[in-house]
Amino acid sequence: MQVLVRDNNVDQALRVLKKRMQREGIFREMKQRRAYEKPSERKTREKAEAIWALHQDLPVLAADTTVVVNQEILGKPESEADAAAMLGKLSGREHLVHTGVALRTGPSVKVGISTTQVWFESLTPAQIHAYWASGEPQGKAGAYAIQGLGAVFVSNIAGSYTGVMGLPLFETAQMLRHAGIPVWRGQLYV
Q: How do beta strands 72-74 and 60-69 pair?
């Protein structure tokens, strides 16, 4: 069974995958959710479990990012108005970016989380409109990409830049090392 997953459509692909697995009788109910898990941890665990059910011969690495401002989770914008509302909430203030990373190599899944504080400058409606017109906010949690044009709005970060991008490399490398998977192909193995 093959499922095509595009970066901006992972949620829909997981729903389709779950339905196909149920229909074909290979769906195994995910482990009971843990009350202490952040949404990005839970979603990351679910992604890894879903793919592992189909490909148990390979390690599975999954990640998911959540942007939180004032205890409100900002998803991916569905329209320019939605993006403008999100960016308006981030404007001139600090928010948190939680990126979960999960590695499934055997009977259990290891989940880690990277939390980064990000500060935005104050944004004008014209900046928000121009940013939306660039196409970059579409499909991005919190309606911005720190690795792209959205970087000009970021005045400071405390934490993992790569975590804000969507894959915290330090935490990922630690997980891979602990699983016996080399993370450096040069002269040194970290």
A: antiparallel
Q: Tokens standing for 54?
A: 């189909």
Per-residue pLDDT at 92 exceeds 50: yes
Active site residue 64: yes
Question: How far is residue 125's CA from residue 103's CA, in Å, rounded to a whole number?
Answer: 41
CATH number for the region 7-178 comes to 3.90.950.10
Give the lowest-confidence range in 54-58, 90-94, 118-122. Answer: 54-58
Catalytic choice (7, 11, 57, 64): 64
Higher-confidence residue: 71 or 35?
71
DSSP label of 19: H
Residues whose CB falls within 8 Å of the CB of residue 108, separated by 6 or more in sequence, listed in order: none
**Nearest CA among 53, 54, 58 for reference residue 28:** 53
Q: Which two tokens stand for residue 184?
A: 């450096």
First to last CA, the chain: 35
**CA–CA gap between residue 15 and residue 187 (Å, rounded):** 42
Residue ranges covered by each domain of the chain:
7-178
CA distances from 126 to 84, 85, 123, 175 (A): 10, 13, 8, 42
- Stated pTM of the model: 0.78
